[in-house]
Amino acid sequence: MTKFLAIVLSTFSLLFGAAQAQETPEQVATTYFETLKSDGIEAAPRFIHPKELERFKSMLLPLFTAGGSTDNLSTLFFGEKKTPEEISAMAPSDFMSGFLSLAGAQLKSSNINLDKITVIGKINEGETVHVLIRSSTGNDTFKLTKVEVISMIPDGNNWKLLLFGEMEEMVQVIKSQLQKTGE
Predict the structure, then answer these.
(1) Beta-strand pair 158-161/143-155
(2) Does residue 1 sit in helix, strand or coil?
(3) Whole-angstrom Cα distance, residue 158 to residue 21?
(4) Bridge-partner residues for 132, per DSSP?
(5) How far is residue 149's CA from residue 129's CA, in Å, rounded to a whole number?
(6) CA neighbor of 60 nearest in space, from 179, 175, 181
(7) Cα 78 to Cα 170: distance, rounded to the nearest angstrom
(8) How far apart are CA 143 and CA 120, in angstroms?
(9) I need a labelling partner for 67 at 20 to 30 A (CA). Which of 102, 144, 149, 176 fits?
(10) For 23-182, CATH number?
(11) 32 Cβ neighbours under 8 A, 6+ residues apart
């Protein structure tokens, strides 16, 4: 009986320990890309730090709340007409997911898929960890392989991504294009 209890307790502690184990930044990077591969780019907010989601929303929110009609713009990015108040009230993760749905639809219509990623290494910088990866994307007619840096910071017991520089650039391009068409 004692042997049986020892086995049960040992098994329980191993299972409980595994459930409590924190993923490494490299594992988070791999899971992030595997999730994007299976669920689409709209799943990205699940992995992004809450403060970064807030920052993303604050960068783009003025486009939807700056007066005038936002019907076409909200339909383009969120798939339906939304008032500025409805957009302002959106959770930052829902805002980003909705916003990314346009890019996701374009990727799907072009049959562009994330093929694979390889973690090359990581660099610690204070509480920030930078994971270096090689990713392959493409379809039947082309393949693009590039090296990227994914930066993360802790969020409780988890690692969460910071916004990619490309995402910040995309926001600036969208703002610029919308200002040109509004003139």
Answers:
(1) antiparallel
(2) coil
(3) 10
(4) 121, 149
(5) 10
(6) 175
(7) 17
(8) 19
(9) 102
(10) 3.10.450
(11) 44, 47, 150, 161
Distance separating alpha carbons of residues 36 and 107, to the nearest angstrom: 12
Residue with tokens 């993303």: 56
Q: Name the token pair of 139.
A: 């379809």
Question: What is the pLDDT averaged over residues 120-135?
Answer: 96
For 105, how many CA atoms within 13 A lie in the half-sphere containing its CB? Answer: 10
3-state DSSP assignment of residue 163: coil
Q: What is the DSSP letter of 67?
A: S
Judge whether 161 and 168 are in contact, CB under 8 Å: no
Q: Which tokens is 173 given? A: 């391009």
Is the pLDDT assigned to residue 111 strictly greater than 80? no
Specify the residue for token string 């969120």.
78
Q: Decide if 78 contacts 20 (C-beta within 8 A).
A: no
Instruction: Give the residue from 125, 166, 168, 124 showing the smallest Cα distance to 146.
Output: 166
Contacts 24+ apart (CB under 8 A), 142-150: 143/115, 147/120, 150/29, 150/32
pTM of the model: 0.77
Asked if 50 and 161 touch (Cβ cutoff 8 Å), the reply is no
Taking the C-alpha atoms of residue 46 and residue 105, their distance in angstroms, rounded to an integer, is 19
Mean pLDDT of 83-90: 87
Residue 71: its pLDDT value, please?
Answer: 60
